[in-house]
Each structure stands twice: as C-alpha cells, then as structure tokens.
Write a structure and sequence with these properties.
78% helix
Length: 400
C-alpha cells in the first residue's frame, strides 16, 4: 500500500491529522516528567497535586468564551494565537527556579487548549460520512504516533541534560503545529443542522438531553481514570525504583496502546459504527492496566500496563466521535468546548484527589482508579445499548 501524506483522509482532514499529531507531541514531550519536575522544584506531594489540578480552575474560564471567539474572529488566527501561549508556557516551565512559577505555565498551557474544541469542530464539519473513523485517525492514531516518539526523544534529552529539556522539546513541537495550522482552510463548509432559528448558546446545548447525558458520561469517565493515572510516575519512582528517564521512555507504551486501538477501530465496522462500544472496551483496558501497576514489579508487566494505559485517550476520542454524531452543527463548537472543559477539568481535579490518597499509600489512587474505571466500563456499555435502541432523530440530539 502506497503511503500518503494525508493518510487517506483528504487534504483538509490530512492537515488536521498532522496538526493534532504535533499538538500531542508537545504533551508527550513533558507530561511523563511533569509531576516529577514540580517535585524537583521543591513542592511536597500534596502541592504537586494542587499544581496539576490548578488547570481545572483556569480551563473553564478559557474554553467558555472559545466558541464566541472563533465565531467572531478569524478561526485560524485565534487558534494560532492560542497555541503560541502554549509555546510561552513551555519556556516558562523550562526556566522556572521555584514551583510557584509553574502556575504561570499552567495558565499559559490552559490558554493553548482553545485549539482542541476548535479542531474537533473542524473534524466533525468535514467528516460527515464516517466521523468515528476520522476521529479515530486524527484524535487517536496521529497523536499516538507522536506520543510514541516524543517520550523516547524526551527521555534521551533528559538523560543528556536534565528535565528542562522536555519542556524545550514541547515548545518546538508546538511551533510545528502552528506552522501547519497556518496552511489550513478554516472556512465553514455546508453541514447538517436542526433547522432552528434560536441563537446558539451553552444553555441551548444543555437543553438537549442526549448531548447533556453524553457530557456527564465523558466527565465522569475521565475523572475516574485521572485519579489512577496522574501519579503513576511518582509511584514508579518511589516504590519501584525507576529513574525519570526510564519512566518517560515507558510512557511511549501508552501511545502504542492508543495507536493500536485507533487502527483497530478504523478497520472494524462493529467498533467504528458504535463509538461508545469502542469507548467501553478502551476504558476496560486502562482499568486492567492500572491494576497491573499495583500488583506488578517487573519491567515487562509494567510496560504492558503502560500500553493498556493508552485506553484513556482512546476512550476520550470515541466519546468525541459520538458527540459529533449526536449534536447538530449549530451547537457543535459549544458542545465540543464543554466536552473539553469537562475532560480537561477532570484531568486536573483528579490529581487533587489522587494526591490525598497517595499520602495514605502510593498504590491507593492507582487502585481506586482501576475500580472506578471498571464501573465506568459497565456504565458506558449500558449507555451504548440504550442509545442504540433510540429513534435516530432522538439519538442525534435533534429533538429538544
């Protein structure tokens, strides 16, 4: 099979594929050592959770107005400016001499996340025929390839210099994503709508019960899993004796898991036509991975646990695909903004709970995450069954 730069998605979605790939390359460059860097700068473990969780307070303030901004100003310029804030955040983190300065990096990185609902809306607009396949490739496979490479490169750079190198690498990948966005066409193509003349608003979004229920499911799932995954680097360093460079390198395993899952969804109609079914399987995989972290002491099992950890972002992407099918185009940008707020805030507030549990025993938050993830696997599967039995119009959220 001949390789194509657009991975078979066409120019518009192909550009989105590479933009999202470099977005997540930034995340992969530093996230594996982010809690370790906060601790390195003098923060006790409870404060580590506070710094990690502080983004949850900033993110809604940033993402809330994002739909208003992209509707009233040039979308490309808004998204590029947002990503430039992320570059600044990486520089601040790299140059920080005290953990208090990292709050500035948190704010700047939160501002950079305006790109995510913007890009998710872009994908949903242009992937009308098979949104699950498009979201699987663009949100799962492309970013996962970056998350395989950048933790490995980051681990190498950290072993040569120190943890600051991870943030400088993240700044470079963010600049690459900005260059790609500068070439994208952000004009609004014709798409499906619900025929309503009521102005789009967040209140209207929350009145659509299928959309509202999917948002609640998304937030609860990511929050449950975030409790388990956040302090895994600290857990492995303190209880298993792994070095930061090794932890960063093993982090690539999560990306392998996400990429493999995305490719399976891409080639399996049973999964691509049922995004929540795929999300349930992914959630179950990460629950198993979290349990392996607790009971395993050898490198091969820990590596497998990291691979299964990739189910978290696979589940996130499949819920976004389901939202693309559920919400009308008129409300899409706001629905994706809320999904990003809920998911991102869950990823931020989860560490606050995890840090308190960690004080009792380092394994406690990981095990709690495994249990809660198992519960959410059952809930997601049940919701998929219920939604499959709904009439098409009600399932798509056109009835308010």
């Amino acid at each position: 099979m001949r390789l194509r730069w657009d991975v078979g998605l066409g120019r518009d979605l192909g550009m989105a594929f590479w933009a999202m790939t470099f977005f997540e390359a930034t995340f992969g460059a530093y996230m594996g050592v982010w809690p370790l860097w906060i601790e390195e700068l003098g923060a006790p473990i409870a404060v580590v959770g506070l710094v990690l969780g502080s983004a949850g307070f900033v993110r809604p303030l940033v993402l809330g107005p994002s739909s208003w901004l992209v509707e009233r100003f040039d979308r490309r310029r808004v998204l590029m400016a947002s990503r430039l804030c992320g570059v600044a955040g990486m520089i601040v983190a790299a140059l920080a001499q005290a953990w208090q300065v990292l709050f500035i990096a948190v704010v700047l990185n939160s501002l950079s996340e305006i790109v995510f609902p913007g890009m998710q809306t872009y994908v949903a607009e242009r992937a009308i025929e098979n949104r699950a396949r498009a979201f699987s490739m663009i949100i799962n496979v492309g970013p996962s390839l970056a998350l395989i490479v950048t933790p490995l490169l980051s681990g190498l750079l950290i072993s040569i210099w120190d943890m600051r190198a991870a943030f400088l690498l993240g700044g470079l990948t963010s600049l690459a994503s900005i260059a790609i966005m500068s070439r994208m066409d952000f004009s609004h193509p014709p798409d499906d709508d619900d025929g309503s003349v009521e102005p789009a608003s967040y209140r209207t979004v929350f009145r659509v019960s299928p959309v509202r229920n999917l948002m609640a499911l998304h937030g609860a799932t990511i929050f449950s899993l975030a409790i388990g995954v956040t302090l895994i680097p600290n857990f492995l360093k303190e209880t298993r004796g792994f070095e930061p460079a090794m932890i960063s390198t093993l982090g690539a395993g999560a990306a392998v898991g996400t990429a493999v899952f995305g490719l399976v969804v891409n080639r399996t109609p049973w999964l691509s036509t049922g995004p929540l079914r795929a999300a349930a399987i992914a959630c179950g995989a990460i629950s198993l991975g979290l349990a392996l972290f607790v009971v395993s002491h050898t490198l091969p099992w820990i590596a497998l646990a990291f691979v299964l950890r990739g189910g978290m972002f696979a589940a996130w992407a499949m819920m976004l695909a389901e939202m693309g099918e559920t919400v009308s185009s008129r409300l899409r940008s706001r629905a994706f903004a809320v999904m990003e707020m809920l998911g991102g805030s869950a990823m931020s507030f989860g560490p606050i709970i995890a840090a308190q549990l960690y004080r009792f025993d380092p394994a406690t938050p990981v095990m709690i995450g495994a249990i809660l993830g198992g519960i959410m696997t059952i809930v997601i599967g049940y919701v998929q069954w219920r939604r499959h039995s709904m009439p098409a119009g009600e399932r798509r959220g056109l009835a308010t």
